[in-house]
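INFO batch 0412 | record 1 of 1 | parsing
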Amino acid sequence: MKSLSGDDWVPPIIGSYIDGIGHTPLVRLGSLFQETDISLYAKLEMLNPGGSMKDRPARYIIEQGLRDGTFQPDTHLIESTSGNLGIGLALVAQFYGLSFTCVVDPKITKTNLHMLGCLGAQIDMVQEPDEHGGYLQTRIRRVGELLEEIPNSSWVNQYANPLNWLAHYYGTGSEIVKQIDGSIDYLVCAVSTTGSILGISRRVREAFPDVKVIAVDAVGSVIFGTPSLPRELPGIGASRVPELFTPDEIDQVIHVNDRESVEGCYRLLERERIFAGGSSGSIVAALQKLVPHLPSQSRVVTVLPDRGERYLDSVYDKEWVKKLPRI
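INFO prediction complete | emitting tokens
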């Protein structure tokens, strides 16, 4: 165990809070599957300033846009988001003095909604479900309306913007390659826009060509061609196929339902004392299905996308959990 004395290395002074985005630790999860000989490592993206991995594309997209002229000082950013990217965009937009409208739906957590307001985002909430029973298509249509209504507005468009995956290629993926102390046999990532899994896997495959890329998707998500069903947890799955998505880069997909994701959160908290959000629970649930079938001494890397406190009124609320269907 490292000493907490002043002799330990400490990071240098940084210029601003957004310079704290990235450089998150990669930790060995020794207790989650301690009955096996699998080596499991997790990238703690929850330690970004905004609390999630979405800080990375938020910063990358805004800074690249300002650099190449796509965004101007008077640009009004618009995005449809269930929470984490909205928080990241609000954080970075506020730093650069840009206006930002976040299009959300009634399933957003109270905590995320409050955080967005505190960070200066303008909130536009849709109320009507789309043809799939979710809200994504309704939110996208609302974005189109706002682009017509708001002068000098620009849609971030995380589902189609290549800067989304590039942020993770140059950020998360490159850091994992530098941090890992050996080979990587399996890379396990949750999917929504698919930007993170594509960016990370493209960089990891350059260093470890034989790595198997495992996607974790929600039951009810249509990304991999499965039927659309109601879902409660934000941050994983989608009711439309992202334009970024290239399915031939994914070796396997594991679907988990909301209840399995919640149970995964509690298992992660109990075994590793990591207080994480719903998509991290989905990762744990998928690993429970995957690990028993892996070759002996396999090395697995995964990403834990966000923190648990913004799920206090959902995943960590026993009354909310009771309402979830038992599948």
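INFO post-check: The beta strands are 26-28, 39-44, 76-80, 99-104, 122-125, 153-155, 186-190, 212-218, 252-256, 299-304.
INFO record closed
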